Amino acid sequence: MHKILCIFKKSTTGHVVIILAAALLLTLPFLKQAFQLDDTEFLAFARTQIGQPFKFYLGCLDCPAGGPNGLFTTTHPPLLWLYLALMIWVKGGISETVLHSSYVIFPMIGGVGMYSLGRRFSRYPLAAALLFITSAGFLVTSHTIMGDAPAIALMTAAMAAYVWGVDRSDMRLLMLGASLLLLAVMTLYQSLALVPLILVYLAVNRKMKLRNILPLTVPVLAMVFFFLYQYQAVGEIPRLRYHEDYWTGFVDQLIKGRALLAFLGATAVFPLALIPALWAGRGGRRIVYPLLALTAVAGVIIPVAVDALSVVQGILLLPMVIAGALLIIGAVRGVVTGLADLGHGPGESADVLVFSLWILGFAFFSFVMMPFISVRHLLLMYPAVVIIFIKGVERLFPGRDRIIQYYLAATLVLGGLLVALPAAVADYRDANAYRYMAQRYGEEFQDSTEQVWFIGEFGFRYYMQEAGFKYLYPQGCRIQPGDLIITGLTGSFSTPVPHEAVEIDSELLFDDYPLVINNGWAGAGFYNHLVGPLPITPSRAPLNIFTIFRVGGES
């Protein structure tokens, strides 16, 4: 164990090599992962960029997000579409391996950025970097071609460069930070929230100088110009949130709040390591303990008592919810303490204030602005969570460097082996289910004389179309008696199965892997809390169900 701990004491160059190697080891085995969820939207827009660069809408994407004239516009900025378009053009077509390979750079950027941030705000920068890139949320999403992992990687590097630029009065670092933030904003609009966080950092460190503020105008003005450009092109500014909303009542919001706590507490840092670190050495127990008890009772115990959750789900949820609640409570306390200590100048309280606002700001955005809680949307909090966690461990074992290193190493191993890697494998297998079934149906109906349609979205739609099947749109498609319709679990947003269609076959697709992250039968809702209350759960539930209907047929 002592030899393992020696990695914490290597030179900066040695640490960077370790981070880059870890990023490669965690991504290369997953390069063949099938496209899923919003991957397919990024692909659709990337395809348009090859022939029509900077086209910001699609004419026939069957999603409830139409803009002017029924066009489909997206909440995603264009940087990754253009990047993917370049990769597709170079390859001469779409390849899962090539496109996933092109994203390996982002875990590297995120790891090095987190290391740099850790050097400024903790004594364990390598641990900070490895905790970040091995977190379940970052690891799983880094195997997709969506924008969440690239955005937080660029944001983290931007924050690190800017902070060091301020501290060293180095305009080159300030401009590097502003440029990275510009890339982050063009990857995910919410990245612009880093600007007020940087301004808070300048204020609490008494460095609110014009030279430190001016570079921030680069990403701000770029976003303004881009909004104006898109408005001129399609008649509306980019959407910053989904059109859908699920604000249907108090209980729904309570469930949403529980999901935010559980998903954050389970996937940012190993929860059984997070709880002691955040619990230790803090005052205000008369407030904290009742809040934790209320959270446990309202979020877990009562739902179990009324059979809204199973006992097993309750047992799994409890430490996740407690860990998330401690993070939010600690962030609130960090803001209060930081504001009270502002008169003392820069210091530990000022640093904690910045990271506490980081957590609370994005938690508020996820809860209020997003229609559902997804681990994808919580990634923006992870760098701050990691720094707060390490500070908590330092507080738990003051002056005991060896024990702190053991604790951080154990957190890395347990979080990686028990949560992150198993979750990544589960996501890999789940994503591949649609590709497998589409290929199988393609072979099965290769010589069929019947017209075969399908209904479904995301990866199912992409791979069924690649296999040559026709998508059944709600309008404009003429189905005939005898036609077949295939559906997957991920149904269409707007096309119901025609009433004259009769089910003739149904197949549950099972897998022998004992863990799921996005499965309604098992209650796992990593990508959407409406699918299930747990982000990750052990289960042998079916991966999917596929049904074949015949128009005007007999069952």
Describe the 3D structure.
There is one protein chain. This protein has 555 residues and is of the alpha/beta class. Among the domains are: 31-102, no CATH class; 250-396, no CATH class; 429-551, no CATH class. Helices cover 59% and strands 6% of the residues. Strands 2-1-3-9-4 form a five-stranded mixed sheet, with helices on one face. Mean pLDDT is 88; it is low at 1-5 and 62-70.
Which descriptors apply to this entry?
555 residues, disordered N terminus, 5-stranded mixed beta sheet, single chain, two-stranded antiparallel sheet, 6% strand, alpha/beta
User: Taking Cα atoms only, what radius of gyration do you get, to the nearest Å?
Assistant: 24 Å
Structural class: alpha/beta
- Note the beta-strand portion: 5-15%
The first-to-last residue Cα distance is 63 Å
Please give the structural blueprint:
Elements: H1 2-5, H2 12-27, H3 39-51, H4 79-91, H5 96-102, H6 105-121, H7 125-133, H8 136-141, H9 148-168, H10 171-185, H11 194-204, H12 210-213, H13 217-234, H14 250-267, H15 271-279, H16 285-305, H17 311-340, H18 348-369, H19 375-378, H20 382-396, H21 401-444, E1 452-455, H22 458-466, E2 470-471, E3 484-487, E4 501-509, E5 515-516, E6 518-519, E7 524-525, E8 537-538, E9 544-551
Parallel strand pairs: 1-2, 1-3
Antiparallel strand pairs: 3-9, 4-9, 5-8, 6-7
